[in-house]
Design a protein that fits this description.
It contains 8 helices and 13 strands. By secondary structure, it is α/β, with parallel strands linked by helices. Strand 12 and strand 13 form a beta hairpin. The chain is globular. The mean pLDDT is 91.
Amino acid sequence: MITTKPLGEPLKEEQLKRLQNLAVAELCDGMSLLGIPRSGCMDAEIKPIDKKSSFIGVACTVKAVDGNLTPVQYAIEKAKAGYCLVVDTEGFKEGPYMGELMALTAQDLGLEAIVIDGYVRDSLLIEKMEFPVFCRGYMPRTPKKAQEGEINGPICCAGVKVMPGDVIMGDYDGVVVIPRAQLDEVIEAAEKRHNNDEHRRVRIEEFFDQNEENSQHKDFATLNSDAAK
Protein backbone atom coordinates (compact mmCIF):
# COMPACT_ATOMS: atom_id res chain seq x y z
CA MET A 1 0.00 0.00 0.00
CA ILE A 2 1.24 3.49 -0.86
CA THR A 3 0.23 6.11 1.71
CA THR A 4 -0.26 9.61 0.32
CA LYS A 5 -0.57 12.83 2.32
CA PRO A 6 -1.16 16.41 1.07
CA LEU A 7 1.58 18.59 -0.39
CA GLY A 8 3.13 21.31 1.75
CA GLU A 9 2.41 25.00 1.15
CA PRO A 10 3.92 26.54 -2.01
CA LEU A 11 6.57 29.23 -1.80
CA LYS A 12 5.51 32.85 -1.65
CA GLU A 13 6.60 34.88 -4.65
CA GLU A 14 8.73 37.20 -2.51
CA GLN A 15 10.52 34.26 -0.88
CA LEU A 16 11.25 32.71 -4.28
CA LYS A 17 12.68 35.96 -5.64
CA ARG A 18 14.98 36.34 -2.64
CA LEU A 19 16.16 32.73 -2.90
CA GLN A 20 16.94 33.21 -6.60
CA ASN A 21 19.57 35.79 -5.62
CA LEU A 22 21.37 33.36 -3.29
CA ALA A 23 23.77 30.47 -3.85
CA VAL A 24 23.47 27.10 -2.15
CA ALA A 25 26.71 27.76 -0.27
CA GLU A 26 25.34 31.05 1.08
CA LEU A 27 22.25 29.26 2.37
CA CYS A 28 24.52 26.73 4.10
CA ASP A 29 26.39 29.64 5.70
CA GLY A 30 23.11 31.10 6.92
CA MET A 31 21.94 27.80 8.38
CA SER A 32 25.31 27.27 10.04
CA LEU A 33 24.96 30.62 11.80
CA LEU A 34 21.52 29.56 13.00
CA GLY A 35 22.77 26.21 14.32
CA ILE A 36 20.71 24.07 11.94
CA PRO A 37 22.14 20.50 11.89
CA ARG A 38 24.62 19.85 9.06
CA SER A 39 23.88 23.39 7.83
CA GLY A 40 21.03 21.70 5.99
CA CYS A 41 23.55 20.09 3.61
CA MET A 42 23.00 16.66 2.07
CA ASP A 43 25.87 14.20 1.63
CA ALA A 44 28.52 15.30 -0.86
CA GLU A 45 27.83 12.27 -3.09
CA ILE A 46 24.49 13.77 -4.16
CA LYS A 47 25.38 15.45 -7.46
CA PRO A 48 23.46 16.64 -10.55
CA ILE A 49 23.51 14.55 -13.71
CA ASP A 50 23.83 17.81 -15.66
CA LYS A 51 26.55 19.93 -14.03
CA LYS A 52 24.74 23.11 -15.08
CA SER A 53 21.60 22.12 -13.15
CA SER A 54 20.20 24.29 -10.42
CA PHE A 55 16.76 24.47 -8.86
CA ILE A 56 14.58 25.80 -6.05
CA GLY A 57 11.49 23.90 -4.96
CA VAL A 58 9.20 22.79 -2.17
CA ALA A 59 9.76 19.21 -1.03
CA CYS A 60 7.35 16.48 -2.02
CA THR A 61 8.86 13.69 0.06
CA VAL A 62 8.90 10.04 -1.00
CA LYS A 63 9.88 6.91 0.92
CA ALA A 64 10.75 4.14 -1.54
CA VAL A 65 12.73 1.25 -0.09
CA ASP A 66 14.28 -1.91 -1.59
CA GLY A 67 14.54 -0.38 -5.06
CA ASN A 68 10.78 0.09 -5.46
CA LEU A 69 10.15 2.86 -8.00
CA THR A 70 6.32 2.83 -7.81
CA PRO A 71 6.08 5.48 -5.05
CA VAL A 72 8.33 7.73 -7.13
CA GLN A 73 6.01 7.29 -10.12
CA TYR A 74 2.95 8.12 -7.98
CA ALA A 75 4.64 11.17 -6.49
CA ILE A 76 5.57 12.53 -9.93
CA GLU A 77 1.91 12.37 -10.93
CA LYS A 78 0.68 14.07 -7.76
CA ALA A 79 3.29 16.84 -7.44
CA LYS A 80 2.90 20.23 -9.11
CA ALA A 81 4.98 23.04 -10.57
CA GLY A 82 7.08 24.60 -7.85
CA TYR A 83 7.70 21.27 -6.11
CA CYS A 84 10.60 18.83 -6.25
CA LEU A 85 10.67 15.15 -5.34
CA VAL A 86 13.00 14.18 -2.51
CA VAL A 87 13.38 10.41 -2.29
CA ASP A 88 14.49 8.41 0.75
CA THR A 89 15.73 4.95 -0.31
CA GLU A 90 17.04 3.86 3.12
CA GLY A 91 20.43 3.31 1.53
CA PHE A 92 19.39 0.87 -1.20
CA LYS A 93 22.37 0.20 -3.53
CA GLU A 94 21.30 -2.75 -5.69
CA GLY A 95 19.50 -0.92 -8.47
CA PRO A 96 18.19 2.37 -9.89
CA TYR A 97 14.98 4.20 -8.99
CA MET A 98 14.22 5.94 -12.27
CA GLY A 99 15.27 6.52 -15.85
CA GLU A 100 14.69 8.87 -18.75
CA LEU A 101 10.93 8.33 -19.13
CA MET A 102 10.17 9.17 -15.52
CA ALA A 103 12.38 12.24 -15.73
CA LEU A 104 10.60 13.28 -18.93
CA THR A 105 7.20 12.90 -17.26
CA ALA A 106 8.34 14.99 -14.30
CA GLN A 107 9.68 17.68 -16.61
CA ASP A 108 6.47 17.80 -18.68
CA LEU A 109 4.36 18.08 -15.51
CA GLY A 110 6.40 21.09 -14.41
CA LEU A 111 8.32 19.68 -11.43
CA GLU A 112 11.42 21.62 -10.47
CA ALA A 113 13.74 18.67 -9.82
CA ILE A 114 14.15 15.15 -8.46
CA VAL A 115 16.62 14.37 -5.67
CA ILE A 116 17.24 10.66 -5.01
CA ASP A 117 19.41 9.20 -2.28
CA GLY A 118 20.32 6.40 -4.66
CA TYR A 119 20.95 5.52 -8.30
CA VAL A 120 19.32 6.27 -11.66
CA ARG A 121 19.84 5.03 -15.20
CA ASP A 122 19.70 6.60 -18.71
CA SER A 123 22.01 9.29 -17.38
CA LEU A 124 23.14 10.64 -20.77
CA LEU A 125 19.56 10.94 -21.99
CA ILE A 126 18.55 12.73 -18.78
CA GLU A 127 21.53 15.07 -19.13
CA LYS A 128 20.34 16.09 -22.61
CA MET A 129 16.91 16.96 -21.19
CA GLU A 130 18.39 19.68 -18.95
CA PHE A 131 16.00 18.63 -16.18
CA PRO A 132 17.60 18.70 -12.71
CA VAL A 133 18.09 15.17 -11.38
CA PHE A 134 20.42 14.78 -8.39
CA CYS A 135 21.55 11.32 -7.27
CA ARG A 136 24.42 9.21 -5.90
CA GLY A 137 25.34 7.61 -9.22
CA TYR A 138 24.20 5.41 -12.08
CA MET A 139 23.25 1.77 -12.52
CA PRO A 140 21.61 0.19 -15.61
CA ARG A 141 19.67 -2.61 -13.91
CA THR A 142 15.89 -2.90 -14.28
CA PRO A 143 14.06 -1.11 -11.42
CA LYS A 144 11.66 -2.97 -9.18
CA LYS A 145 7.94 -2.26 -8.80
CA ALA A 146 5.78 -2.87 -5.74
CA GLN A 147 2.72 -1.27 -4.17
CA GLU A 148 4.50 -0.05 -1.03
CA GLY A 149 5.78 3.32 0.07
CA GLU A 150 4.83 6.71 1.46
CA ILE A 151 4.39 10.14 -0.10
CA ASN A 152 4.63 13.36 1.93
CA GLY A 153 5.71 11.90 5.22
CA PRO A 154 8.90 12.65 7.19
CA ILE A 155 12.04 11.19 5.60
CA CYS A 156 15.82 11.26 5.83
CA CYS A 157 17.55 11.90 2.51
CA ALA A 158 21.35 11.78 2.24
CA GLY A 159 21.83 12.48 5.92
CA VAL A 160 19.28 15.28 6.31
CA LYS A 161 15.78 15.12 7.77
CA VAL A 162 13.21 16.41 5.29
CA MET A 163 9.59 17.28 5.96
CA PRO A 164 6.99 17.84 3.24
CA GLY A 165 6.94 21.58 2.59
CA ASP A 166 10.61 22.17 3.40
CA VAL A 167 12.44 24.21 0.79
CA ILE A 168 15.08 22.43 -1.29
CA MET A 169 17.77 24.14 -3.34
CA GLY A 170 20.51 22.57 -5.43
CA ASP A 171 23.39 23.40 -7.75
CA TYR A 172 26.70 21.76 -8.62
CA ASP A 173 27.97 22.29 -5.06
CA GLY A 174 25.19 20.06 -3.76
CA VAL A 175 21.71 20.13 -2.21
CA VAL A 176 20.46 21.92 0.90
CA VAL A 177 17.26 21.53 2.90
CA ILE A 178 15.76 24.62 4.56
CA PRO A 179 13.29 23.83 7.37
CA ARG A 180 10.07 25.58 6.39
CA ALA A 181 9.51 27.05 9.86
CA GLN A 182 12.89 28.82 9.63
CA LEU A 183 12.77 29.83 5.97
CA ASP A 184 12.56 33.61 6.42
CA GLU A 185 15.23 33.52 9.12
CA VAL A 186 17.56 31.49 6.89
CA ILE A 187 17.02 33.81 3.92
CA GLU A 188 17.85 36.85 6.05
CA ALA A 189 21.03 35.25 7.42
CA ALA A 190 22.12 34.14 3.94
CA GLU A 191 21.46 37.61 2.51
CA LYS A 192 23.69 39.14 5.16
CA ARG A 193 26.45 36.72 4.19
CA HIS A 194 25.87 37.47 0.50
CA ASN A 195 26.15 41.23 1.10
CA ASN A 196 29.28 40.78 3.19
CA ASP A 197 30.89 38.68 0.46
CA GLU A 198 30.02 41.34 -2.13
CA HIS A 199 31.76 43.94 0.03
CA ARG A 200 34.82 41.72 0.40
CA ARG A 201 34.91 41.05 -3.34
CA VAL A 202 34.94 44.79 -4.10
CA ARG A 203 37.55 45.37 -1.39
CA ILE A 204 39.86 42.72 -2.88
CA GLU A 205 39.60 44.25 -6.35
CA GLU A 206 40.23 47.76 -5.02
CA PHE A 207 43.17 46.56 -2.95
CA PHE A 208 45.07 45.25 -5.95
CA ASP A 209 44.01 48.08 -8.25
CA GLN A 210 45.06 50.85 -5.89
CA ASN A 211 47.91 49.43 -3.85
CA GLU A 212 50.63 48.20 -6.20
CA GLU A 213 53.20 47.87 -3.40
CA ASN A 214 51.06 45.45 -1.40
CA SER A 215 50.23 43.55 -4.58
CA GLN A 216 53.90 43.02 -5.42
CA HIS A 217 55.07 42.15 -1.92
CA LYS A 218 51.98 40.15 -0.96
CA ASP A 219 51.49 42.07 2.27
CA PHE A 220 47.83 41.26 2.85
CA ALA A 221 47.55 42.39 6.48
CA THR A 222 45.37 45.40 5.67
CA LEU A 223 43.20 43.45 3.24
CA ASN A 224 42.63 40.52 5.56
CA SER A 225 41.89 42.81 8.46
CA ASP A 226 39.27 44.64 6.44
CA ALA A 227 37.76 41.47 5.00
CA ALA A 228 37.30 39.93 8.41
CA LYS A 229 35.05 42.76 9.60
